[in-house]
């Protein structure tokens, strides 16, 4: 047998043995690093820290957040995609994880193939809000104004490819209206622009509700398929005249591909077990509990990738 053939056989055998050993060892056997692709203090970081403290308590090992805020989460994604698949390096995933493949030309990993879905942690709705100066009071009025006014309405987002940007693009493709996208450097500046009447429309986060209650803006619809218990009097966009419209923000947990199934199963069952204890903390952040099986979450990721790929294509959005 030629030397390189022998070497390849040894490498394959060694890799298989390491995978088998990882599956047989108690999990976790050492501290677990949880990668977050955004800066400390933001929504993704907060969601991750609430969960991993509980995982540390239940599984008896430290779960440590490692923030890698760069390139829209792509640095964090590549780091986890290349990590040893033993469950000791995990990634907090959000919609950008499955949107980025459509936005970036040089992504050096596959958002589905290079990862193993673990669990959906929480999800939330967005709030279709309008400025006071817009004179709009409902989704119907918004659609009519977007079709009849000489100057197109503008909508603020936290940046190209963000959830509130694509929420607007989805509304445009489903209704045929024209809205001009105005990207800002984050959700807070976008919300401030709406309050200051610099733009007429924005798909805002839970943070907008106190401003709506104080009369600084108007929140006219939510983006989910059903109303949220947080604001039960606000109709969905589907109810208000755009059947089938649905956008949810979500946060989940993923591991490198080829992580042993027993490890994935233990993580998934642990997440599902601790979520009810975290309900109040997440509800205070405007979020509903996720949960469910790992395969179910994997199927959800595929659906989200395909949905947003169509929207990104229609919008022509790209990030260089």
Keywords:
alpha/beta, 2 domains, 320 residues, five-stranded mixed beta sheet, disordered N terminus, D-Maltodextrin-Binding Protein, domain 2, 11 helices, 11 strands, six-stranded mixed beta sheet
Quick gist of this model?
The chain has 320 residues and is α/β, with parallel strands linked by helices.
Give an overview of the whole structure.
The relative contact order is 0.18. The protein is α/β, with parallel strands linked by helices and 320 residues long. The chain has 2 domains: 15-124 and 249-315, Bordetella uptake gene, domain 1 (D-Maltodextrin-Binding Protein, domain 2, 3-Layer(aba) Sandwich), CATH 3.40.190.150; 127-222, 3-Layer(aba) Sandwich (D-Maltodextrin-Binding Protein, domain 2), CATH 3.40.190.10. The protein has a 6-stranded mixed sheet, sandwiched between helices. Strands 7-6-8-5-9 form a 5-stranded mixed sheet. It contains 11 helices and 11 strands. α4 packs parallel to α11 (294-315) and α6 (163-175) packs across α11. The chain is globular and about 65 Å long. It has helices at 3-24, 43-59, 74-81, 95-103, 139-148, 163-175, 187-195, 209-213, 261-274, 279-283, 294-315; strands at residues 32-36, 63-67, 89-93, 115-125, 127-131, 153-157, 179-183, 201-204, 217-222, 248-256, 288-289.
């Amino acid at each position: 047998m030629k030397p390189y053939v022998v070497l390849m056989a040894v490498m394959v055998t060694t890799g298989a043995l390491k995978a088998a050993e990882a599956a047989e060892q108690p999990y976790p056997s050492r501290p677990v690093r949880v990668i977050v692709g955004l800066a400390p203090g933001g929504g993704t970081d907060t969601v991750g820290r609430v969960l991993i403290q509980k995982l540390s308590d239940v599984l008896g090992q430290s779960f440590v957040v490692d923030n890698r805020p760069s390139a829209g989460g792509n640095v964090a994604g590549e780091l986890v995609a290349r990590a040893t698949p033993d469950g000791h390096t995990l990634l907090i995933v959000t919609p950008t994880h499955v949107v980025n493949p459509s936005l970036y030309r040089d992504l050096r990993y596959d958002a589905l193939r290079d990862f193993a879905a673990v669990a959906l942690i929480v999800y939330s709705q967005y709030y279709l809000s309008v400025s006071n100066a817009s004179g709009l009071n409902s989704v119907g009025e918004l659609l009519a104004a977007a079709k009849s006014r000489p100057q197109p309405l503008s909508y603020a987002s936290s940046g190209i490819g963000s959830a509130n940007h694509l929420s607007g693009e989805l509304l445009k493709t489903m209704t045929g209206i024209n809205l001009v996208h105005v990207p800002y450097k984050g959700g807070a500046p976008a919300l401030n622009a709406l309050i200051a009447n610099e733009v007429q429309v924005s798909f805002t986060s839970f943070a907008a509700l106190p401003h709506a209650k104080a009369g600084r803006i108007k929140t006219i619809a939510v983006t989910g398929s059903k109303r949220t218990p947080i604001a039960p009097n606000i109709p969905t966009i589907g109810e208000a005249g755009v059947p089938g419209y649905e956008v949810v923000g979500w946060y989940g947990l993923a591991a490198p591909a080829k992580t042993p199934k027993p490890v994935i199963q233990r993580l998934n069952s642990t997440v599902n077990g601790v979520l009810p204890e975290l309900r109040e903390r997440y509800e205070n952040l405007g979020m509903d509990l996720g949960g469910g099986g790992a395969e179910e979450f994997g199927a959800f990721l595929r659906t989200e990738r395909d949905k947003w790929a169509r929207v990104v294509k229609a919008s022509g959005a790209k990030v260089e």
